[in-house]
Automatic annotation (TrEMBL):
Pfam family membership, one: ADH_zinc_N
Domain of life: Bacteria
Protein name: Zn-dependent alcohol dehydrogenase
Matches recorded under InterPro entries: ADH-like_C, ADH-like_N, ADH_Zn_CS, ER, GroES-like_sf, NAD(P)-bd_dom_sf
Keyword Metal-binding: yes
Organism: Saccharopolyspora phatthalungensis
GO molecular function list: oxidoreductase activity; zinc ion binding
Tagged with keyword Zinc: yes
Family: Belongs to the zinc-containing alcohol dehydrogenase family.
SMART domains: PKS_ER
Keyword terms of this UniProt record: Metal-binding, Oxidoreductase, Zinc
Record domain Enoyl reductase (ER): where: 8-363
PROSITE patterns according to UniProt: ADH_ZINC
Length: 366
């Protein structure tokens, strides 16, 4: 099969021929049709998140099951599926407590070493050299993943429309539902209107939040945010964004501010935009060593809540999201602005690096 292989920081990925990966116990193989280009992949490409090389990135996968491993029930060859970027083991202490989004084995084996849960990769060059996996390694014609991260796509829903549900949308849902527990009528701000920010805006409308303030430095992204449901937009390159958010909310600030980039400047805006007793939810993945500042006395006096959110709970929440898509209440395809053929996979990440991608870009593979 063909796969886009990352070999060194700040070097372009190369499309190589790798051996077809085969599923083992509890796993399935997927013929990939589409894979979203996520900013977290970009952190790895730039060397900002340490990860072994050579590796295949890509964790927003939609495709068709091509092989079912031993012990897997409920799936058949030919099933149309989407994956969650978090691959819960279902056995560790955190999974047992219902915290699949921080599965211990996922972080130990996959995020730590690029392997699946038998401590081995499924990807190899023709000479037998191992190639590591970031999640399931979806920037390839075929990938292997635990069946715990696989979900059927409802009839009538196009595979190319839902690849991003497994990361951008799931990450947004986890932040809204579990970290912040947003209610109807809550005022929210989304600071950085990229892929995850776009999903936050879409889902905030589903949750009944109002007003919804989108913040970015790109007028193009802010225009996209308005189409997705933002009631107000703020260009933080032109005004004091936190002050403007307070002005738009009658001087009070928002109930929840979501930081969706992983940068000091966006964290500061979110921190300073919330009402007393409000929540600052950090969703964006920052480069290692990035630090934000806050005054401890202010946090105590204003009863601020600063929370981290890494994603939703896959086995509980992915069926909910796909049901919303099937009923037309959630349209992830509206946030997709670019499609790239597999041969231009590096172009997708270059555009992401330069801030040119509005919403989500998708690489069409199969």
């Amino acid at each position: 099969m063909r796969a886009a292989v990352h070999t060194a920081a700040n070097q372009p990925m190369r499309i190589e021929q790798l051996a077809d990966p085969r599923p083992k116990l509890g796993e399935v193989a997927i013929d990939v049709r589409s894979c979203g280009a996520c900013h977290t992949d970009l952190h790895v490409l730039k060397g900002e998140l340490p990860f072994p090389t050579p590796t295949v990135l890509g964790h927003e996968v939609a495709g068709m099951i091509s092989e079912v491993g031993p012990g897997v029930t409920g799936f058949e060859v030919g099933d149309r599926v989407v994956t969650s970027f978090i691959m819960p083991c279902g056995q560790c202490e955190q999974c047992a407590r219902g915290n699949e989004e921080i599965c211990q084995r996922f972080f130990e084996f996959n995020r730590g070493k690029g392997r699946l849960y038998d401590d081995e990769t499924r990807l190899f060059r023709p000479d037998g050299e191992p190639v590591w996996m970031y999640s399931m390694g979806g920037l390839a014609e075929r990938c292997v993943t635990p069946a715990t991260s696989v979900y059927r796509v409802p009839e009538g829903v196009e595979l190319t429309d839902v690849a991003s549900v497994g990361c951008a949308t799931m990450t947004a849902y986890g932040a809204l539902r579990h970290a912040a527990n947003v209610h109807v009528g809550d005022a929210v701000a989304v600071v950085a209107a990229g892929g995850v920010g776009s999903a936050l805006i879409q889902l905030a409308t589903v949750f009944g939040a109002s007003p919804i303030v989108a913040v970015d430095i790109s007028e193009e992204k802010l225009a996209g945010a308005r189409k997705l449901g933002a009631t107000h937009t703020v260009n933080s390159a032109e005004v004091d964004a936190s002050a403007k958010i307070r002005e738009l909310t009658g001087g009070r600030g928002v109930d929840v501010a979501f930081e969706a980039l992983g940068a000091v400047a966006t964290f500061n805006i979110a921190r300073d935009a919330v009402v007393e007793g409000g929540q600052v939810v950090v969703v964006g993945i920052a480069a290692r060593g990035t630090t934000g500042e806050f005054d401890l006395a202010t946090i105590a006096r204003r009863k601020l809540q600063i929370k981290g959110s890494y994603g939703a709970k896959p086995r509980r929440d992915m069926p909910v999201l796909l049901d919303l898509v099937a009923r037309g209440l959630l349209r992830p395809q509206d946030a997709i602005s670019r499609h790239y053929p597999f041969e231009q996979v590096q172009d997708a990440y270059d555009a992401l690096k330069h801030g040119e991608t509005v919403g989500r870009a998708v690489i069409d593979i199969g």
